[in-house]
């Protein structure tokens, strides 16, 4: 089994031996390599970076580092897997761990330098949505390609204070308050139904747990809370997870509630199953295609076609496979695709000081500040969920203005 461990002074030698192995095979050890590999504490860790190792059967067989460039950018560097253990998925495991670690560090972007001669490595980077950008300069003689991947959250989720303000229900527009009330009423009915069918309290996974607001609302309804045996929450915003931990402590529910800093794109690695998987407060619309060009999007020149959204489909197919027999996924509030909803979305963004980069011809709204929300039709939901029987997908409209709906997939 592959495990990821952190660098310690006792494991210092491995970062050098693993990297020298591939450098000598394909290129040569450059002076900058010598400096970093001989002094990883000073050159990586003391500068705000991190170093990880991969172990296989308790032997260190791979390594990767994140070198801090500035507060928003880290370089993925010194990645190596010993040749004898290649082909076991070690590189993929290191990559996934690095992406999640970068998010936890608050990085907006990862960059890397490589050489097109390393075809397997380049294929791995592309698989994880790194894209080539101009190579203007490099510290490495061997580099002939530079790649990057955006991993950051919208500014709305960068700090506990901002998150708390964003989730204050009274500060939301009327239509969002109304939709939240509607989604919660529908959710409580589904929890009671599932518990009745099961004949026992159910297990719940809350994707995009935010500040634990749904957890709190459920706890404040004892007649519903009694139907929940275990409640896991995930979020890829560390600020949200920190706030959820505070909510758990305040409510005294650590015996059955756990909050995980995790990327929903990695649900296919999740080891648990659930009776109910939920996502609330329009979170279903937050899954945008990797490397969407927030900085340069020009809908007139190259409009994004969302007849398919591979990121959305990947996440929710993995979630569907985590359901116990008879279980369900609930999308609490889903924006309905029409011009009235679009205008209300854009008004919401303006109230938070954001600048929209999409127009009336897009089926999603996005801002320069990396906020994203997709709108849906019943047809699009069914198309995205082709892996689920169509008869198992139901829609409940949460208002009479065609603004938001709740989707249930059993």
SSE order and pairing:
Elements: E1 2-6, H1 12-26, H2 31-38, H3 40-45, E2 50-56, E3 59-68, E4 73-81, H4 90-104, E5 109-114, H5 119-127, E6 131-133, E7 145-150, H6 160-166, H7 174-198, E8 202-207, H8 213-219, H9 222-225, E9 228-235, H10 238-251, E10 257-261, E11 274-279, H11 310-321, E12 323-335, H12 339-351, E13 364-366, E14 372-374, H13 378-384, E15 393-397, E16 404-409
Parallel strand pairs: 4-5, 8-9, 8-11, 9-10, 11-12
Antiparallel strand pairs: 1-2, 2-3, 3-4, 5-7, 6-7, 12-16, 13-14, 15-16
Helix pairs in contact: 8-10
Q: Mind summarizing the main beta sheet?
A: 7 strands, mixed
Summed up, the helix count is: 13
Determine Rg (CA atoms, Å). Answer: 23 Å
Low-confidence stretches: none
Average of per-residue pLDDT values: 91
- Which percent band covers the strand fraction? 15-25%
Shape: globular
Terminus-to-terminus distance: 33 Å
SS content category: alpha/beta
- The topology string of helices and strands comes to EHHHEEEHEHEEHHEHHEHEEHEHEEHEE
How many beta-strand elements?
16
**Helical content class:** 25-40%
């Amino acid at each position: 089994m592959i495990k990821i461990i952190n660098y310690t002074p006792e494991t210092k030698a491995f970062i050098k031996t693993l990297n020298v192995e591939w450098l000598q095979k394909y290129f040569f050890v450059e002076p900058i390599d010598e400096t970093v590999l001989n002094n990883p504490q000073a050159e990586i860790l003391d500068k705000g970076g991190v170093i990880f190792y991969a172990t296989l059967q308790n032997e260190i067989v791979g390594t990767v580092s994140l070198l801090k460039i500035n507060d928003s950018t880290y370089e993925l560097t010194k990645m190596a897997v010993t040749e004898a253990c290649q082909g076991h998925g070690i590189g993929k495991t290191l990559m996934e761990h690095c992406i999640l670690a970068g998010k936890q560090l608050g990085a907006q972007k990862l960059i890397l330098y490589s050489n097109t001669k390393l075809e397997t490595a380049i294929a791995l980077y592309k698989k994880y949505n790194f894209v080539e950008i101009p190579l203007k300069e490099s510290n490495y003689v061997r580099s002939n390609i530079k790649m990057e991947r955006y991993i950051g959250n919208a500014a709305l989720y960068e700090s506990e204070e901002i998150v708390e303000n964003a989730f204050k229900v009274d500060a939301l527009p009327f239509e969002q308050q109304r939709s939240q009330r509607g989604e919660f009423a529908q959710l409580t009915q589904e929890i009671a139904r599932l518990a009745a069918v099961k004949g026992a309290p159910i297990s719940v996974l809350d994707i995009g747990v935010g500040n634990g607001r749904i957890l709190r609302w459920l706890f404040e309804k004892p007649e519903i809370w009694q139907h929940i045996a275990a409640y896991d929450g995930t979020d890829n915003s560390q600020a949200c997870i920190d706030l959820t931990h505070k909510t758990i402590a305040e409510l005294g529910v650590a015996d059955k509630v756990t909050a995980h800093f995790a990327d929903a794109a990695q649900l296919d690695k999740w080891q648990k199953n659930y009776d109910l998987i939920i996502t609330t407060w329009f979170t279903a619309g937050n899954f945008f295609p990797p490397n969407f060009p927030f900085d340069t999007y020009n809908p007139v020149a190259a409009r994004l076609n969302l007849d398919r959204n591979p990121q959305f489909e990947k996440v929710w197919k993995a979630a569907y496979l985590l359901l116990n027999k008879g279980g369900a996924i609930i999308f609490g509030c889903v924006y309905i695709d029409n011009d009235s909803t679009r205008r209300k979305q854009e008004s919401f963004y303006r109230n938070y000081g954001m600048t929209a980069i999409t127009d009336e011809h897009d089926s999603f709204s996005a801002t320069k500040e990396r906020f994203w929300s997709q709108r849906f039709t019943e047809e699009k939901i069914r198309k995205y969920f082709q892996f689920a029987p169509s008869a198992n997908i139901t829609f409940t409209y949460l208002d009479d203005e065609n603004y938001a709906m709740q989707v249930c997939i059993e």
